[in-house]
Amino acid sequence: YSDTAYEQLPTVIAHRGASGEAPENTLPAFELAASQGARWLEVDVAISADGQAVIFHDERLERCTDGKGWLLNQNLEDLQHLDAGLWFGKQFRNTRIPTLAELLDFAEEHDLGLNLEIKPVIGREAETVWAMRQELIRHPLHQPVLLSSFNTTALKCARTHLPHLTRALLTEAIPRDWQQRLQDLECSGLHFCADLIEPAAVEQIRTAGYRALAYTVNNPDQALRLYDAGVNAVFTDFPQRLLKSATIPDR
Ligand code: G3P
Ligand code: MG
Fold first, then answer.
1. Which ligand is nearest to the CA of 237?
2. Alpha carbon nearest to ligand 1 atom 3, residue
3. Is the model's pTM score more than 0.95?
4. Hey, which of 12, 40, 57 would you mutate to test ligand 1's pocket, going by the most ligand atoms within 8 Å of its Cβ?
5. CB contact at 8 A, 1 and 208
6. pLDDT-derived band of residue 250, with 50, 70 and 90 as boundaries?
7. 3-state secondary structure 166-232
8. Whole-angstrom distance between the N-terminal and C-terminal Cα of the chain?
9. Cβ distance 227 to 197 under 8 Å?
10. Is 156 helix (H, G, I), strand (E, B) or coil?
11. Reported confidence tier of residue 185, pLDDT bands at 50, 70, 90
12. Is the omega angle on the peptide bond into residue 26 within 30 degrees of 0, that is, cis?
């Protein structure tokens, strides 16, 4: 199964864009990450009530917009009336929830690789993957696309409907049975929580030929310790902070 996206993996990935300095999962955060030299973005992909793929982390709208309730209960047109920037800062007023289509066009224009994290509401996995497939066909990207998810149903749907794209399993701690899980899902990598790292497990993952990526790392010293432990790349809210640290291995 596909490992091709990982062949172009940088060591630093902008988590939800440069989400420490601009509202997460919005175009300003993507623009800032690109201007800071990030080569890949990680974003969360969900669907609206009318089945359109949008970039958004939470199931509910309250934290990151001026709307209320479940994302999945609102049509794209209604979602596009919400302000997704004001919560972060007044200067981001009138920022909108991006569609996956907009993100793909932005990535194509700026030569950015993407880690699309599939964030389906439980029970809507197939619809979410299907919506992603539609946009990926309509907006072909010549940059690497890596799919990941905590949701194993979503990963199985991706294997069926987007078989050519590289897949990763997301977890918090590294599961004891990581190898079995990666094999069963035909995933090429494991993305886990950096604070829960077990270096011996990372070594085994790498020795077995899989990639090990860690989230969310905002401290350059922690990033260096992770690379030393064999971690291939880290997700960060502050790409500039990590990229300007001279000792980080080649991006
Ligand atoms: O994909 C890495 C990381 O984004 C997973 O957790 O909650 O930030 O989407 P979360
Ligand atoms: Mg994510």
1. 1
2. 215
3. yes
4. 57
5. no
6. low
7. EEEEECCCCCCCHHHHHHHHCCCEEEEEHHHCCHHHHHHHHHCCCEEEEECCCCHHHHHHHHHCCCC
8. 25
9. no
10. helix
11. very high
12. no
Answer for the pair 249, 11: CB distance below 8 angstroms, yes or no: yes
Ligand 1 site, CB within 6 A: 15, 42, 44, 57, 117, 148, 170, 191, 215, 235
Task: List the one residue out of 154, 179, 182 whose CA is nearest residue 169.
Answer: 182
Looking at the predicted complex, does its ipTM rise above 0.90? yes
Q: Which residue has the tokens 């799919």?
A: 147
Residue appearing with tokens 């990033």:
223
Compute CA distances 178 → 171, 175, 209, 214, 235, whole Å. 10, 5, 13, 15, 20
What digits encode the pLDDT tens for the residues 81-99?
Answer: 999 999 999 999 999 999 9
* Cβ atoms 49, 75 nearer than 8 A: yes
Q: Grade residue 245 by pLDDT with cuts at 50, 70 and 90.
A: confident
**Structural domains of the chain in order of their starting residue, each with its CATH number:** 4-60+99-243 (3.20.20.190)
